[in-house]
């Protein structure tokens, strides 16, 4: 009897352990396997002003209490979030004694990041902005992903969405059968939740791009944790999914930032080729960005990609960047064998903590291409869904153990 009680207690403890993850308290009314977008001019129009007219989301799909969230487009500790119960509980659950003792970086007078005094030769903090480092020096942090390993593979990624004016762009991707990795800004998700739902509905791989898009190495530990945490919560609220991957704005990541991301089980996805499209028409002529595209496209056929693929940095910012994507994708598809998202090129079946949505592995994706002489992009396998609900295998095991222990007690 005594030992059976212990078994029950152990099973209960096991359930508590299984449900202790930080994202378990997140809520969402959206079923990512059956996203139905309300039919509004904002979700269908191609007119930028119409698309970007603010709407009140259907409360049965997306609603939130502003006092429980950071201020949109400000550091995620704002609006009292650094003292909220949920954030304090999370903060205190982390063993900060293990955090690396790495300096918070500062800005130059010109507004860039100052690397003055940093040892760029030894690069002790694996600071990408200073050295391009992508292999952490610190043990026990998740290692960055920065390319697609398969030959002649273009890793398709778009940052800074969901942008209100993306309808023509997403329709184009859909028509071409392309699934991209989309790095969403938490503040944009809160402003344009239907845009995030559309990303999931279309089978794109959604990842985090922080709450307010700042140079992460310049933020305190507390601010970093909040930038990650509230973006996870926002993406879950709008899509029903919590990402396991994130991308550093400006690539500004070091081992302190990686360590905090790893506390939330987040892994950084960077890139190895940059189109610099974000500055097209601003500090760089559009033609210069087009030349960058041309080089990367040429690399697909001139032998440069014979042994490896890439991940290309491009943006969902506005008509300039999205139109560049639309104009170049047909040539990209012609010159590369595979144009795919990072989850598929890295065999990441579950890019979200929920195991409701699964992605094909690279070989599953290739096997699904049955078209004779057709374009790979038009037969990309769709995001397959698994039948099991959000509950984890771990939880089910614990429940089985508990029921077995209870049954044993009853028999006694
Ligand atoms: C999907 O959602 C729509 C609208 O919410 C609903 O009518 C439909 O029954 C759902 N389909 C499935 C397969 O759950
Ligand atoms: C919360 O952040 C504010 C500024 O954003 C700061 O003044 C305050 O000290 C912080 N509180 C805690 C508990 O860290
Ligand atoms: C893919 O199919 C669409 C029609 O569904 C077609 O318009 C488009 O040109 C095709 N793309 C390629 C690269 O063949
Ligand atoms: C999160 O990471 C910790 C430490 O690496 C690990 O023990 C835990 O199982 C992970 N949780 C999930 C849900 O992946
Ligand atoms: C898009 O943003 C860039 C950078 O701010 C800007 O230079 C460009 O003019 C914008 N394009 C449009 C169509 O607004
Ligand atoms: C392939 O094209 C790229 C971009 O134009 C160029 O940098 C590279 O040198 C070329 N490689 C070969 C083997 O021609
Ligand atoms: C989204 O696109 C619109 C229209 O091009 C642009 O005005 C706006 O600045 C963009 N918003 C963000 C947050 O990038
Ligand atoms: C960019 O703007 C032009 C002119 O309004 C429009 O025809 C085009 O579809 C837009 N492109 C995208 C990708 O939104
Ligand atoms: C993906 O899986 C294939 C087939 O098992 C394997 O050859 C390839 O190395 C894997 N790629 C990665 C990044 O693990
Ligand atoms: C799909 O098949 C076509 C034609 O056989 C081939 O050119 C393309 O590389 C294949 N794509 C994939 C992903 O295997
Ligand atoms: Zn960005």
From TrEMBL:
Domain NodB homology per the UniProt entry, residue ranges: 152-345
Cofactors: Co(2+)
Reactions mediated catalytically: [(1->4)-N-acetyl-beta-D-glucosaminyl](n) + n H2O = chitosan + n acetate
Protein name: chitin deacetylase
Family label: Belongs to the polysaccharide deacetylase family.
Domain of life: Eukaryota
Signal peptide: 1-20
GO biological process: cell wall organization; chitin catabolic process; fungal-type cell wall biogenesis; polysaccharide catabolic process
UniProt entry tagged with the keyword Metal-binding: yes
Membrane topology classification: Lipid-anchor; GPI-anchor
Gene Ontology cellular component terms for the protein in this record: plasma membrane; side of membrane
Keywords: Carbohydrate metabolism, Cell membrane, Cell wall, Cell wall biogenesis/degradation, Chitin degradation, Cobalt, Glycoprotein, GPI-anchor, Hydrolase, Lipoprotein, Membrane, Metal-binding, Polysaccharide degradation, Secreted, Signal
EC id: 3.5.1.41
Pfam families listed in its UniProt record: Polysacc_deac_1
UniProt-annotated location(s): Cell membrane; Secreted, Cell wall
Gene3D superfamilies associated with the record: Glycoside hydrolase/deacetylase (3.20.20.370)
């Amino acid at each position: 009897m005594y030992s059976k009680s212990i078994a029950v207690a152990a099973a209960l403890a096991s359930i508590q352990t299984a449900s202790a993850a930080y994202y378990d308290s997140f809520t969402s009314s959206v079923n990512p396997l059956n996203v139905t977008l309300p039919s509004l001019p904002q979700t269908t129009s191609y007119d930028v002003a119409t698309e970007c007219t603010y709407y009140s989301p259907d409360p049965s799909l997306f609603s939130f209490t502003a006092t429980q969230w950071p201020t949109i487009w400000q550091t995620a500790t704002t609006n009292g979030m650094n003292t909220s119960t949920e954030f304090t509980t999370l903060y205190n659950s982390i063993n900060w004694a293990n955090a690396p003792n790495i300096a918070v970086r500062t800005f130059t007078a010109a507004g860039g990041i100052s690397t003055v005094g940093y040892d760029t030769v030894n690069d002790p903090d694996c600071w990408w902005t200073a050295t391009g480092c992508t292999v952490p020096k610190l043990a026990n942090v998740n290692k960055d992903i920065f390319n697609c390993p398969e030959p002649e593979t273009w890793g398709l990624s778009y940052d800074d969405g969901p942008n209100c004016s993306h309808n023509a762009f997403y329709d184009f991707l859909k028509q071409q059968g392309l699934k991209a990795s989309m790095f969403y800004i938490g503040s944009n998700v809160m402003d344009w939740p239907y845009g995030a739902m559309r990303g999931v509905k279309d089978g794109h791989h959604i990842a985090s791009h922080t709450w307010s898009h700042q140079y992460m190495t310049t933020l305190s530990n507390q601010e970093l944790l909040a930038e990650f945490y509230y973006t996870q919560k926002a993406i879950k609220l709008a899509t029903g999914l919590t990402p396991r991957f994130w991308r550093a704005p400006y690539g500004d990541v070091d081992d302190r930032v990686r360590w905090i991301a790893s506390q939330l089980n987040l892994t950084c996805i960077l890139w190895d080729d940059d189109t610099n499209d974000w500055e097209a028409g601003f500090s760089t002529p559009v033609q210069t960005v087009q030349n960058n595209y041309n080089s990367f496209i040429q690399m697909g056929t001139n032998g440069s990609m014979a042994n490896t693929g890439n991940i290309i940095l491009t943006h969902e910012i506005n008509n300039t960047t999205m139109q560049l994507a639309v104009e170049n994708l047909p040539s990209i598809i012609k010159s590369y064998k595979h144009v795919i998202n990072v989850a598929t090129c890295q065999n990441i079946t579950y890019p979200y903590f929920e195991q409701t949505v699964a992605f094909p592995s690279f070989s599953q994706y290739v096997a699904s291409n049955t078209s004779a002489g057709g374009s790979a992009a038009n037969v990309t396998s769709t995001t397959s869904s698994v039948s099991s609900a959000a509950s984890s295998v771990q939880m089910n095991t614990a429940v089985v153990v508990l029921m077995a222990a209870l049954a044993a007690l009853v028999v006694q």
